[in-house]
Amino acid sequence: MQTTTLTDQVSRQLADDIGRGHYAVGEKLPSGRALAERYGVSAAVIREATERLRAQGLVRSRQGSGCTVIARSSAQGFQVALEAGRDHRALGAVYELRMDLEAGAAALAAERRDAGDLQAMRAALSALARHQEDPLLGAEHDVGFHLAVAAATHNPHYQRLLQYLNQQLRQAVDAARANTARQPGLADSVLAEHIAIYDAIEAGRPEAARQAARGHLRNAAARLQLNFPFTD
């Protein structure tokens, strides 16, 4: 039986409130702290819940200005079922998609990155190195690095799609990180995979970046015991 997470519950409650007009289109949602108090959850849960609303096309978020409601009903575009993070076959299929998308993003990043992009990637790698033994913080900075690579494509569609996929698969990333923390030396190998992607991007080598990203995600899938092709 599948369990419902706090993020599932809060994102559903927020979406229902928006649908009923409790938060009107054009209105800003309350601050993260206020929402955390209202729903009795942590700020991290609120961040994940509002990110799901953003991916569904219900809100728009901007750094420093919070979330603004932009629609009362979810966009009917591409979506990944929440169960993908918990179902072996569904998770495998999304990892296969993510592998090619992120490999392509890494190649583009190697061609288009600027000094700010490289600085953002280095900051994510530095944070990942400091917290690689911590499953929760490690997952946070792992996702942050991949999003920094996506931003370096300077293609907003890559950024939005990969941000959405990473958010939907956050539970799987958390699981992979927890598994990594239990195996001596594995965290160093995972960090080295990320560094290899960065080195190729910094050097402006698109094909090397593509292969490094593809290899990293294939290894990540293996750490989750997902096989190619994906079967039950």
TrEMBL record:
All copies of domain HTH gntR-type, residue ranges: 4-72
One annotated GO molecular function: DNA binding
InterPro entries listed in its UniProt record: GntR_C (IPR011711), TF_FadR/GntR_C (IPR008920), Tscrpt_reg_HTH_GntR (IPR000524), WH-like_DNA-bd_sf (IPR036388), WH_DNA-bd_sf (IPR036390)
Superkingdom to which the source organism belongs: Bacteria
Signal sequence annotation: none
Keyword Nucleus: no
Presence of keyword 4Fe-4S: no
Alphabetical UniProt keywords: DNA-binding, Repressor, Transcription, Transcription regulation
Function description: Transcriptional repressor for the pyruvate dehydrogenase complex genes aceEF and lpd.
Protein name: Pyruvate dehydrogenase complex repressor
Organism encoding this protein: Bordetella trematum
